[in-house]
Write a structure and sequence with these properties.
Layout (H helix, E strand, L loop, with lengths): L13 E5 L2 H13 L4 E4 L5 H5 L6 E5 L7 H16 L5 E5 L13 H12 L4 E4 L7 E4 L2 E6 L2 E4 L19 H6 L6 E4 L8 H15 L3 E4 L4 H15 L5 E5 L2 H13 L50 E4 L4 H12 L3 E4 L2 H5 L1 H20 L4 E4 L7 H12 L6 H21 L3 E5 L1 H10 L2 E11 L2 E8 L8 E5 L8 H7 L4
Parallel strand pairs: 1-3, 1-4, 2-3, 4-11, 5-10, 5-11, 9-10, 12-14, 12-15, 13-14, 15-18
Antiparallel strand pairs: 2-16, 6-7, 7-8, 16-17, 17-18
Helix pairs in contact: 1-8, 3-4, 7-8, 11-13, 13-14
Amino acid sequence: MADAKGGERARPLLCYYGDDFTGSTDVLEALFRHGLHTVLFLAPPTPEQLGRFPDAACVGVAGVGRSMTPDEMERELRPLFRMLKTLGAPIFHYKVCSTFDSSPGVGSIGKAAEIGREVFGGRFVPVVAGVPYLRRYTLFGHHFAAAGDRVYRLDRHPTMSRHPVTPMAEADLLRHLAEQTAMRTALFSILDQDGPPDQVSGRLERLVADERPELVLFDVLDDERLAKVGELILEEAGRHETVFVVGSSGVEYALAGRLGGQAHGVGSGAADGGGHGASAANGGSAAMTAGGGDRGPVEAAGGHGADEVDRLLVISGSCSPMTERQIAAAVTTGYTAIRVPVSGLIREEERARTMERLTLAAKQALSDGRSVVLYSAAGPGDGAIEAGRAELAARGFRPEDSSRVLGTAMGTLARELVADLGLRRVLVAGGDTSGYVTRELGVYALSCRAELEPGGPLCRAWSSDPRFDGLELVLKGGQVGSPNFFEHVRRGRVK
């Protein structure tokens, strides 16, 4: 494929599709940590947009697969997978949340796996849910996730077991997947992963030969075993043109250290940007080789921290307990919190006045040098959530329309405030909200600028609108970050 200068672009080492926006930046962060220059597109890229990043080692596309029906996934994912396959990456990752939240009717991971296997082929689809870095673990096929200081089995997790759309009532991931697909499944457990590499590889080969699985779930307990899983995936990549993998950012943490070493100087941390190519594990296939050439406009990888800004705009469409704590902590440090009322946005006769009032209040605070939080709910117990849903229902809207109504309003507010006040940095909480905000800002791609806290990297926005091109963005999931995360983002560092 040609780049923007008419030459041939390098083959990426990895391509991925993220099934929501905040989760997609989680992968961006993981690759960045290992010195792999990565570009994340926020919609299927045009050839011209791809051409701006001719030497990116990894290419991602952020989507909304998590909120799609199986029919919607079929229409969107299949052509996108086929397009990304043309880039020639040896590994393609369908990225899902590390809590694996999904259902047969919404965000079906099983359906995505079916489409991916049909497009990319391969003996089986590796499934990796665990991410020790984010305190997510899979043990004997059962999944666990941290909340605060405790780790919970997923069906007893205080947030995910009560998810409003896809509550996780099943911690056994093979059972969970069986509700979404008829594909044959098998488990490669923690016990299978112990021992010398040749023994571990032999066990996987026997499993594949004996059970002929179409999906293989890998236990993940710690970084050491995760690295072993990465080696097995790379071995599989050496056998096939492309390996299709389903999982969390644990996939990148499993692979990135090895890929980063192989891609030294190819969109990696080399200051001169020179390309030296990369070879597959175990002397694998030529498909693992990335070409050289001039480095595209991507950030220097592997950096920690950024400059402090005098004021931060926070846009929150999340109702998670952690975001609630973060809003409360921000207020105690002087942030101005402004509620965005759903009712005032739903009622057509009130919408313009509501938006004007919100804009003026936020502009006043920001102009006075204060950071601002525009939020839709102050946590899961906020009465505004049920009141908003009731208002939507009374006016003939579907429950899911609340995301569209709120997201569009939040995006409009962000656009006006950034453009009028010249803001340098914006934090968005909530996957759906992130999608709407970036759309209103005309952002078509992100690259990672700095690490802050796990799951919340500072990104550089690439926009077709010069007012927003170069804006610094943090897109965070509801549960991501410490209580003081907003201030850490403003300061550009954790301490």
